[in-house]
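note to self: dont lose this again. the chain is below, predicted strucutre after it. 558 aa total, dont forget to put it in the shared folder this time
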Amino acid sequence: MVREKKEKKEKKESFMQGVAAMMLSQILIKLLGLVYNWYLTVKPGFGDEGNAIRSAGYSIYTLLFTISSIGVPNAIAKMVATQTSIGDYKGAHRIFKVALGTFSVIGLMGSAILFFGAHYISNYMIKIPEAEMTLVALSPAIFFVAITCVFRGYFNGRDSLKTTARSQSLEQISKTVFTILIVDLAAMLFGNVTIMAAGANLATTVATFSSLLYLFVYYRFRRKEIKEELKNSIPNSTYRRKRGSQIVKDILFVSIPMSLSSILSSINGNVDTVTVVRGLETYLSHDLAMKQYGILSGKVATLSTLPLSFNIAFATALVPAISAAKAKGDEQTIQKRISFSILAAIIIALPCMVGLMIFAQPILDLLFPNVNQGAFILQMSSLAILFIALEQTINGSLQGLGKIFVPAIALTCGVVLKIILNLVLVRIPTLGAAGAAIATASCHLLACIISASVLRKNVELNIQFGRYVIKPVIATGMMGVLSYTTYLLLNSFISQNIATIFAIGIAVFVYVILILFLKVFTKEEIFMIPYGTKLYKLLEKTGMYQQGKRFKTKGLKD
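---
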């Protein structure tokens, strides 16, 4: 009994510590992304036009590296977690080795396609000739990313999300530093926006190599520990005896359906690349159309995806965690982790969505004072935040449960809807690029509804309407009213930027207090949070939670 409780505690700590590590990493990634996007946007000679060229090339690169890596991280994490949960370390390691060889070849092919096809893609597919050099600069990164994904999937499956988090953080730090250095150098030597945009994307290639190098060195460092695990692996390992070709088939059988969601997400982004400029050019000049697309794909995309850094950690951790629990037949752990992750997605995304809608213009004035256009586009883009957050969490749950085709089918329906809406809405002058943002929100709303309906049929979740919807809406509404009132009052006698910063600080403080006061989280869920024991004791002292009642841990597997 004592051993069982210890194992449960270790599992809980592993899951939540992994989530915490991934969350901190994603926050750092998004903040650094904001830094270099801010730098590029305000840099003379780059601005929204440079963002349009850089983003056009980057969106094509994203699609190709997604296809080249074919859903590797989640697929390998799922397969490795399933094998290690039953003590089959040799099978897990064989999956890793076969995947490493296979996706090295696939990644190399993806790099070759982007390098040799850059001229055709830029001139004939996306109709943005300026993007050709950015595609060439990004081509080696596909090879590096394909290998990196295999390492990340292997470590995720071994409950080592911190390793992935560190590699992602290192990659983003490198990307930020090299973006600034290379773009500055290009500006001094050439002063050409096309070359500067290519330099910004060359920094991505350098950053992906740095991440791969870190993972390789870390793997070599852990080699003794891995060898010890292999010695203690259970006999008659399934994957140990399988031929390499069969393992590749098994990986592809899991990874291709998983990758469809990622591929469709990339296609979703490329829908804007292909249709927005074309649609805007029906009533705007090419330069003005490029600037609007630059606003949408540059500063607006950066700001509207920033809140998702908090939620993506849960989605990443859910796949191997639920796969391992399912392999053991542990339904209680599956239910609790999914329920908690969905609640966390709502708690995180809802206030961010409302906050960006309310403070769109003040935030743009604060961060981009000389190029502060795009408030309406940002407001419309923020509508998608809640739906994307829920979609990420639900899809991670479905993939862990083995329902790997469902997210792809749901997103296919969403992408079809987006294409139709893009073709219609972008051509409306009063909407422009904001029409594409509305189409994106509609896409993810539809995909979320489809995925959620399937999840409900497969897992019995304890989703209480009052706690999951009513209370977060009340907290968000009060937060919005109090923070915006504070902004209006302060803006009358202090600078707008200081008023914005202070109002956002008030919003965060008020929201956290209201979430705790309304008891959105149960006692069990508070204990699931890192340092939850200390937090719960503090809440008892403040009177927010009833004192004296002993917390029951019986049956808790989270």
